[in-house]
Amino acid sequence: MTDTKLILLLRTAITFGLCLILLGIYFHNFSEAVEAMGVTGIIISAMCIAFGMVLSLPTKMYLTFILVRREADNNQSK
């Protein structure tokens, strides 16, 4: 897999993770249906936030590593 495709895949994962985090926040604060579910609704909103963090945080670290490595390679070739 080329770096360009990998970066696009990682950015997509970050975006999806951030969307899940925002969905979990929306469920927790503004959704009456989830509030009516009680504990099950809290678990649903917490799982959205947890999966969003699992997708976004490690991906950000790996994407940063790839970009720093690419910049170092470009600086060495000059």
User: What's the main sheet like?
Assistant: none
Point out poorly predicted stretches: none
> Gyration radius, to the nearest Å?
18 Å
Oligomer: single chain
Annotation, overall tally of beta strands = 0
The first-to-last residue Cα distance is 25 Å
Percent of residues in helices: over 70%
Order of helices and strands: HHH
Strand portion? under 5%
Number of domains: 1
Mean pLDDT: 88
What is the overall shape? rod-shaped
Q: How many individual helices?
A: 3
Structural class, judged by helices and strands?
A: mainly alpha
Question: What order do the helices and strands come in, and which of them pair?
Answer:
Blueprint: H1 3-30, H2 32-37, H3 39-77
Describe it for me?
- With 78 residues, this protein is mainly alpha-helical.
- 94% of the residues lie in helices and 0% in strands.
- It contains 3 helices and no strands.
- The protein has helices at 3-30, 32-37, 39-77.
- α1 runs antiparallel to α3 (39-77).
- The chain is rod-shaped, with a radius of gyration of 18 Å.
- It starts with a helix and ends with a helix.
Which terms would index this structure?
single chain; 78 residues; mainly alpha; 94% helix; rod-shaped
